[in-house]
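Section 3.1: Structural characterization of target chains.
Under the original work plan, the team committed to producing a structural model for every single-chain target entering the pipeline before any wet-lab resources were allocated. The record below documents one such target. The sequence was received from the expression subgroup and is listed exactly as submitted; it comprises 392 residues.
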Amino acid sequence: MMTFLHIIDWMLWIIMAPSVIYVFFFAIVSLFHRKHKPYSTTTHQYTFLILFPAYKEDTVIVHSVRQCLEQTYPKSHYHIGVISDHMQDSTNALLRQLPITLFTPQFEKSSKAKALQYAIQQLSTFNSQLSSFNYIVILDADNMVMPDFLEQLNASCQQGYQVIQCHRCAKNCDNDVAVLDGVSEEINNTIFRKAHNTIGISSALIGSGMCFPYQWFKEHVGRLDSAVEDREFEVFLLKENVYIKFEEHIPVFDEKVSSRENFKRQRQRWLNGQIQTLMLMLPYIPKAMAKLNINYIDKTIQQALIPRSILLALLPVLALIVMLVSSEWSYKWWGLFLMLCVSLYIAIPSQMRTRAVFGKLIYFPRLALQMMKNILHLDSRNKDFLHTTHGH
């Protein structure tokens, strides 16, 4: 009986250990990240199309667009388009007063991918000049950017980077859920973006604050077929060996979820998307290995990782259970849990390692329980769009 239990113990540990080791490795790598040096001033100015997909975002979209129009970049070199999906007539009336292009699709089942596809299809009918941009930038309806946002992006493009992921960071810390969501995003920035670039691997995309070559985007957007369009874009890019640059110094301020219900919906969407992306990527793995496509292999591994919140909840529980059977068996579990905690501490930016932030961890078990419940509702075939509401 003890032998059987020991085998189960080791099997569970072997299943969970790779996810912790992966996070630990890139957390250590992040310590060797070089500080950004400002790019040299360039005279060439690219043209940018900024798209805001907006589904029922009446409370935030007008303010976001007005703020984005305050760019110090030449007005002739950028244009803003808003895809108004199921927004109120009063909101659309306000948007029409601004120097932007407003798209008003009528979808029975909405998604961000459909909104982007619609905008690209309709561009030529609005204005032929809107199909001749160098780059396209995707922002969420709640995103805020600095006045020099496009100047910074232009400088980055001048360095030869084709695809850029800007530094999405929290613009609100109004309650405990929002603070923990912001910390989680910064951990992702450290592990899946900054640390990856440090050793020459592509950054992960994040859904907004993304910049693509216009022609590439136009050719690929029609192939999107899920509710996690950013991960599909990654698959396209990595198959083509296109490097994704993370620009830590170009902030895009994003509203963090402020309610447990929104947190649950957001994480459920991410878990569904993770499984869908893994299933999408696995068939190409043999070819990627034959071509030594490290970026593609790494991204596939990412999709197979157990989410950190689930690990944080499960590891101490399993360690305690195993300890009841044999204290010696539990050492490896406690070691794994300690490795994960150290990794996450390293990955949290130093300015966020405050007593106030760590004090919010008391609410983590409740959020972790929400994550565990989400596992029961996973459906890898479900491609429905789960909207996260914003209220600021």
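The mean pLDDT is 86.
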